[in-house]
Design a protein that fits this description.
The complex is a heterodimer of chains A (572) and B (306). With 572 residues, chain A is an all-alpha fold. Chain A has helices spanning 3-6, 9-14, 25-48, 52-69, 77-109, 117-132, 135-145, 151-174, 179-186, 191-226, 233-242, 246-275, 284-292, 310-313, 320-343, 349-364, 374-405, 414-429, 432-443, 447-472, 475-483, 488-524, 530-539, 543-570. Chain A folds into two domains: 78-295 and 320-358, MetI-like fold (Orthogonal Bundle), CATH 1.10.3720.10; 369-570, MetI-like (MetI-like fold, Orthogonal Bundle). In chain A, helix 5 (77-109) crosses helix 8 (151-174) and helix 22 (488-524) runs parallel beside helix 23. The model of chain B is unreliable at 1-14 (pLDDT under 50). Classes of the chains: A mainly alpha (572), B alpha/beta (306). The interface between A and B is large, with 37 and 47 residues. The structure holds adenosine-5'-triphosphate and magnesium ion.
Amino acid sequence: MTATALTPGPVRGIAAGAPKRKISPERISASITLVVILVIAIQALVAIDISIPKMFESMDNAERFFIRVGGVTFPPLGELLYLTALTVGLVLCGTLLAAVLSVPVAILSASNTTPGPAWRWAGRFVGVLTRAVPDVVLAMVFVLMFSLGALPGIMAIGIHSVGMISKMFADAIEQVDEGPRLAIRAAGGTKTQEFVSGIFPQVMPSWVATVLHRNDINLRGSVILGYVGIIGLGREMSYAFKAMDYSLGMGYAIVIFALCVLMEVVSSSVRSVMLGHAPTGRGMGDRLVRRFGKKSPRETMANAVGFASPAQALVRPWTNARRRNVVWGITSVLVVIGSVVISDIQWRDFITFWGKVPAIAVQFWPPTFGSYEYGTMLDAMWKTIAIALAATFLTLLGSVVIGSLAARNVAPNGFIRSASRFILVVIRGIPEVILAIMLIVVTGLGGQAGTLALAICGVGLLGKLIADSSEEVNPGPERALTATGATRLQVFAGATFPQGVQSLIGHTFYLLDTNVRAATILGIVGGGGIGYYLLNAGQGSKYGVVTAIVLMILATVLVVEGLAMWMRRVFR
Amino acid sequence: MGHPQSLPLPATAGIERDRTVKVAFLTKLFGENKALDGVGFEAGRGELVVLLGRSGSGKSTLLRHLNGLEVPTSGQVQVLGEDLSSLTGSSLRRLRSRVGFIFQQFELVPSLTVLENVLTGSLAVVRGPRLGLFGYGKARRLTALEHLETVGLLQLAYQRADTLSGGQQQRVAIARALMQEPEILLADEPVASLDPESSDQVMNLIRDIARSKGLTVVCSLHQVDLALSWADRIVGLRHGKVVLNTLTENMTREEAMGIYGQVEVATITSEFQAIAEELDTPGHRERIARDLATAAATTRAGRKAP
Ligand SMILES: Nc1ncnc2c1ncn2[C@@H]1O[C@H](COP(=O)(O)OP(=O)(O)OP(=O)(O)O)[C@@H](O)[C@H]1O
Ligand SMILES: [Mg+2]
């Protein structure tokens, strides 16, 4: 995990092509921090006690479980379809709300569009804050303020997603070509015109991709919103499990899993059509699209149109591209309208909402641990962190193996590479909450199941990143080692891995960052840790406790995020 | 008439109005670096002025001053009768809308259609943001299509800009500038990224437009031959100073090449400067400055001799 630990001294000399850096004091302290975190992670793993015998035991459990439950049942088809449409519609509305809210936040936070440094910090602060507060917590609050229905869920998703979407939007804005914008300024355009005509058309494709990507994430996350009363498949599943109807609960879980995979396919094809090029991603959806999607019909050359005069050219000819764009445009408008309709938004709530804010805000203040002991709460928080650390560590081990085998320049042969890539794709399709719930229900274990679920799902992400970045390493040192007669494994250990270690550290901390949030949420479904107390406090109307817990989570997330940023900067 | 003193006035006023670009004592510092050093030149209606000079001599910086994209460190820039330093905000934007600017890299929005790109030239007039073709109104779309016909690209109106060749993109950029109904056209190395054939096409287009509409064109170029065949007047820049300002008809190729001359001096100068920085004491500085002057003079003399 650390550059120093995994890079044998003599190899440094051979891997001369690898980027060299001066060892700065900051790098040394970062390395020490890394070692400390590693030790804590291993301790956490030991404490959580995931042992092989126990896992076999729980396998027996699983067998007995399925015999007892007697298979899986599904709800009636009509109900299932309605719930599915409702879930998708609600998530879509929430994501779109976030997309709209993100535009001003992104403009403020991007260095080339911000009106001033103070605005920039304000924009970034909003981004970090909305990202740090889990959507479950927002949903809990909004459930109190709105009539029951889709609105609390939409608002929770909408606000929480602003963090990620605005960050990606801002990154896209910072990467635009400044030329077209300069041309508009030179022609006497205003700042607004510079943005709308010079920048927006450039960032549009990446914005669409970001929003669709976030929509997938939100669909997975919507399961957990059901546990705090947001309507949809997630809530029905939580009811089923609460009523000990495990076979129905499992039925819902399977439907959600299928829905997530389906959504990935749909969003991938929408992306490819809207962006006007073949999908290049390696996701499951992208693969399917590439396989089944036919090549777009060749654009009719405009030369063939033949306008006789400018007046004639006023009527835009109906080329295939235009037809396709219009069809897709209308379809997306219909989908959005459909989502709003099916979510049955109580618009009046937006007016009554403000009246309720003061009364409810008072309930959330001051923060208190209520009847809980400080020790219990800190212990629970620590458990959540421990789960995240242990899961990240396990993921790292698994990913280095699978991810490396999935890289062209490491895999012993094409078959192993394809198989590993396929495993990664399948793992990425699994919503971690569903996996955790299944593990918990089946094995009856708490923290272990949560850790395992996070660890497994993490491999999908980290494994892919490792595979991609090892394929991108400079092949020079590898060739140098191969030329000296080194074995494949020696080449990997001596050249490929040391070069990839930098980005590996960055990716791992990114994973740890997301895992801390995910571990909190897993507690809500019984995965152990602080999430359990959060749910309890919410359901018991002890809102002061909710606030206290949220502040603890916020502090933890900010510390981890800061740490992650530092590590990414130092080991870049 | 009648009044004897008023006689010369109308004539001068006419010339004055004709001088659409007037630059005097223009100096621009980027930190320590003097990009422009006391530059002065004028350009009139219907005139095509070409700026020549080595890379880094200040051509782009000078052009960017002419529509207020750069602010002078000192000196005056007068464009279309207005002192640029007195303009801010909307008055500056109004002036910019009367000055078309053409870039080496065309600077079209790649994902928009050719027609939409041309229409962005009218943003200063329409006020407020516009998205899509229909936001601009039918009359403007027709005008844009007419400009596209002028540059010979009417058939490509609905193609994406990034599917066009470099020469075609530059012609789209010219149509975009025409959309502003400009009185002045500034072009910063408009053909530097184009092959010779497209270069001629683009230069031809620029000159025809300038002639037929009576525009002032100030255009920087790298190729002396292009400058000699298209320019009415050539202004040569070296190290931010004007070293030549002559009508093309009176000029020989050697004279034009002279703008680039004295490569050796430039090299020697920078070498001396490097040494000077190392031995940066007041006494040393003075002596080295003297040495520099002598060295430059000797080299000049040496080159003139054969
Ligand atoms: N924004 C800027 N900041 C700092 N220095 C600059 C800036 N723009 C130009 N310069 C400097 O001013 C000098 C003149 O640059 P300019 O771009 O005007 O030259 P040029 O004649 O257009 O060269 P080229 O033919 O390579 O385009 C150069 O030394 C350049 O480094
Ligand atoms: Mg230049």
